[in-house]
Write a sequence for this structure.
């Protein structure tokens, strides 16, 4: 890919490849209904799973394709499930969260805060958390993940602006346990790129040392245009402000970007590549994954290569 500092691309079709074209169809149908009725676009940004009473983690059925040899298990003593409170404009909600690692070593460990996508719950994204926990070797980095308000068992209703408050509540939890800015890594996948980019550019409780993005959203306008084949002015989406393509210009931290070149939900060329190109920092790494769709980049790239790439990026010093 000319003009990008890239890592080696995959040149074969992984047996873990899965078809996610249905997700694009499920997005486009309500989008077209919206365009016909001029309703609020915001609900299309969220597709949480809430119809359960407890998390299943590695036993979650949809994760059966992953970890067949149990290479990436997390020992029970380093698995911590808990809740914390998040205040967004006076509305306090209970956020369900997970920390993988030794909580007593947060004051010395480097911690990756993984902000997940727009569908499912923490169960859906537990494989990502397991891989990040094993990046550079077991428990090399602490990993924190949460369900935003309205996702999973977290209370309340999701909103674009509340994403920042919920993620920052987690950063405050980590800060209270001794985490410092130079040991904080923000990782945003899909929807999670919104609070990750914003809080990297506009720090609240903490300023991240590095930023990692997987299949990020370029902007709401781009998302709608790609889905409807229409170009609409920004004013058409009055209540949505996401524009990572512009916001990333304010991010001077090192950037790691991984994106499937066959992404049928957030297009590699119109969402991810412009973000990478506009990055305001001096060091960045692009990992284009051939054949990967929206939900399977780490697994199409290869779990061991994914873990190694992340470790090398975090360890890099300018």
């Amino acid at each position: 890919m000319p003009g990008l500092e890239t890592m080696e691309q995959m040149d074969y079709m992984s047996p873990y490849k899965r078809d996610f074209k249905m997700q694009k169809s499920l997005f486009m149908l309500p989008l077209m209904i919206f365009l016909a009725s001029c309703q609020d676009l915001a609900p299309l940004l969220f597709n949480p799973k809430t119809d359960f009473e407890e998390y299943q983690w590695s036993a979650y059925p949809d994760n059966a394709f992953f970890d067949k040899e149990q290479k990436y298990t997390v020992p029970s003593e380093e698995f911590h499930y808990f809740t914390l409170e998040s205040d967004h404009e006076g509305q306090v909600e209970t956020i369900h969260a997970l920390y993988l690692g030794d909580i007593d070593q947060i004051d010395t460990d480097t911690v990756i805060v993984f902000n997940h996508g727009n569908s499912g719950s923490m169960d859906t994204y537990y494989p990502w958390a397991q891989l990040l926990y094993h990046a550079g070797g077991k428990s090399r980095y602490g990993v924190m993940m949460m369900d935003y308000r309205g996702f999973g068992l977290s209370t309340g209703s999701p909103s674009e602006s509340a994403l920042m408050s919920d993620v920052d509540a987690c950063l405050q939890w980590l800060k209270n346990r001794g985490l410092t800015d130079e040991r904080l890594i923000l990782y945003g996948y899909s929807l999670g790129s919104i609070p990750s980019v914003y809080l990297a550019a506009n720090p609240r409780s903490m300023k991240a040392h590095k930023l990692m993005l997987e299949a990020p959203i370029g902007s709401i306008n781009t998302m709608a245009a790609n889905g409807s084949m229409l170009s609409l002015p920004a004013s058409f989406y009055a209540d949505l402000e996401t524009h990572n393509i512009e916001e990333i210009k304010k991010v001077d931290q090192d950037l790691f970007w991984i994106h499937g070149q066959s992404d049928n939900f957030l297009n590699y060329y119109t969402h991810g590549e412009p973000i990478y190109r506009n990055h305001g920092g001096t060091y960045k790494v692009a990992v284009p994954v051939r054949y990967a769709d929206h939900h399977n980049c780490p697994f199409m790239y290869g779990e061991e290569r994914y873990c190694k790439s992340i470790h090398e990026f975090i360890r890099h010093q300018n």
In short: The longest helix spans residues 21-37. Confidence is low (pLDDT under 50) at residues 1-5, 7-40, 228-232, 234-238.
